[in-house]
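Posting here for the record, re: magnesium ion.
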Amino acid sequence: MNTSLTVITGPMFSGKSEELVRHLRRYAIANIPAKVFNHALDIRYGKKKIISHSKESWDSIPIKTGAQILSQITADTKVVVIDEVQFFNEDVIMVISHMLYRNINVIAAGLDTDFRGEPFGPIGSLLCMAEKIIKLKAVCSVCHEWNATRTQRLLNNGEPAPYTDPLIKVGALDSYQARCHSHHDLPEAPFNTILQKK
Ligand code: ADP
Ligand code: MG
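Prediction output follows.
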């Protein structure tokens, strides 16, 4: 097969991890060795698995930096799978380029936008580099249509998180919902202010 980068993206609950597991099953059937990584920040249900909200799972190696991927790949690695790629810093872009030039196929899944609706970490560059993009939608928690492209952060008190909330809040009791653009609620967003001034 031609070496390629595939990026699976969309909001939370859109099925990115499910899609990764679907790919991994096919590789297993075809006897193609794959190395599977997720970011150690994703501590849902235990660290050593990619797990979807529908409980699909696959064993994975939790890591914190792109460099840790390079130390794990071996001469027979044909595919590298990375979940929650948005949590990595920009170094992961160079690591992925390096693997592609070594004829290792890469499938990376991650959020396209953060709760502010802005590109999340390295995802923008990866989308530009990708040979294939699978962009998924979730069901909006407000209008219940299958059109959600945004991730809504709700504070512990149920209020929508303001734009000024920190991007990553480890251990916070916030919750997240998938929402369509019309129902994404983002108080204090700079683009709202610009519109109000006109
Ligand atoms: P992601 O990795 O994109 O967060 P997952 O693969 O973990 O998504 O989960 C997708 C699954 O989440 C769906 O198959 C469905 O069972 C469940 N789910 C829960 N809430 C929603 C929603 N609002 N829209 C779509 N699927 C949802
Ligand atoms: Mg996921």
